[in-house]
Amino acid sequence: MKLRFIKTTILEYLNEQDKFNNRIVAYHGTSSSLPFESFESIMIGTGIVSSGKKYDGFFFTTEKENAEYYSEYFICKVLINDIKTNPKESKHPSTILSLGLEKKVNYIIEDILDGCIISDIIVVPKNNLNSIKIIEWEFIGDEEQIFNKWNYIFGDEDGFVNSDMIEDILEIINIDINFLIKIPIFKKYFNSKK
Q: What is the β-pairing status of strands 74-81 and 132-139?
């Protein structure tokens, strides 16, 4: 428990320092069963919260636990650049995202109850996605469940999957196998199909 407190305190300190540089480390929970290399406009509206509604951007949290609340399988840790302080009284993320879209600005909304705990929320409009850098992916789901999902994605009608089939499907959907192999849970799955 003490180690987790120290890690959290260090992360908070670093984020406070980065606020002066207009950048921050944050987290995003995703419903995607395959990690991706960058955030793209086409992904908007596919998340757990969205339920098909498109918000014209993405939402991030400074608290990993909040990202987990919005995820089925993975959370990604990101570095977001060019962040400005929320200029409005409103703490409603979609309202601030609309303002960000209009002004082409990323905003931070401080101390808001979102998900399960209070955190800072960063809104990044779709016209500013180049300010997000994915640092790492963390698997938080059930291994058997994700392996079954991947078997469905990569397998044939009989449920057979091998590493060649995985590589072929990834090439078709334009995902770099070398990127995915760096993610431990995917590497384990891929190696089990050789």
A: antiparallel
| Cα–Cα distance, 135 to 156 (Å, whole number) | 33
Residues 6 or more apart whose Cβ sits within 8 Å of residue 118: 111, 112
Assess contact for 107 and 86: CB atoms under 8 A: yes
pTM of the model: 0.83
Which pairs with CB-CB distance under 8 Å and at least 24 residues apart come from 145-153?
A: 146/33, 146/73, 146/185, 146/189, 147/189, 147/192, 149/33, 149/73, 150/33, 150/189, 153/33, 153/34
Hunting for tokens 């999902």 — which residue is that? Answer: 149
CA dist., res. 37 & res. 20, Å (int): 27
Q: CB within 8 A of 147, min separation 6: which ones?
A: 189, 192
Give the type of residue at 126: K
Per-residue pLDDT of 99-121, as tens digits, reads 999 999 999 999 888 777 899 99
For every residue of 4-58, DSSP letters joined together read HHHHHHHHHHHHHHHHTTTEEEEEEEE--SS--SS--GGGTT-STTTTT---SEE
Tell me the β-bridge partners of 23. 81
Tell me the residue length of the chain: 194
